[in-house]
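Notes, p. 3: input format for complexes.
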Amino acid sequence: MPGVPQHVAIIMDGNGRWAQARFLPRAAGHRAGVSALRVTINECLTKGCGIVSVFAFSSENWRRPPSEVGLLMQLLLEVLEREIDALSDKGVRVRFIGDRDSLALPLRERMGAAEARTSANSQLTLVIALAYGGRWDLVQAARVLARQCLGGVLSPDAIDEQSLGAALALAQLPDPDLFIRTGGERRISNFLLWNLAYTELWFTDVLWPDFGARELAEAFAYFAGRNRRFGQLTDTPGGSTC
Ligand code: FPP
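Output follows (242 residues plus farnesyl diphosphate):
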């Protein structure tokens, strides 16, 4: 559909405050957040937006109290078990980005199983950032390139935006066209630092569990009205809008 972003990246902020306002435990906010994500994925499938990247757990989230970290990890395990069939039936391909080595084995195994189970799907790619940070991503890409240089397959002088981009977690996917952050903060918070270079940014005070079809339509309408110049004077058809 014209004006629809091909790739939307989302920081789903505000689950805790949503629960607090209702005198509910934080877990209830995160569970409501999973429902909001389901709605967003369905809307993106309907509207023809083919890639949704969500920040489910950041490198910095490890600093939360152990009870909250445990809660989020348990929820992720549960959600992967419960939702994967429904996602797969809708043609969703699931892909994880982040520092897998920092995650517990049962979760890593379930992530691998979800990726394998959905790998042939092509209606929508759901990128779940887990134990992810944009700076971590740049560091791991630098290590990949350094190893290639040491192995003699790459010359340091040949390192360019393309080779660095190919070593990043989102390699093979186009950069996000639209970034959405709920919950009132106006920050990128170490999400996809490299890939968001030319992304249109949209912020809302709405808390993530309250984010639905209306809010997504509002964000897409904002995106459709943007004039994307990618640093040039006129629109570039080579950009990643569809
Ligand atoms: C931010 O709200 C939200 C998170 C740190 C977790 C988001 C995770 C989910 C919605 C679960 C997603 C599940 C899958 C499988 C992708 P917050 O806790 O920072 O809220 P606050 O700012 O109001 O405290």
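Confidence is low (pLDDT under 50) at residues 237-242.
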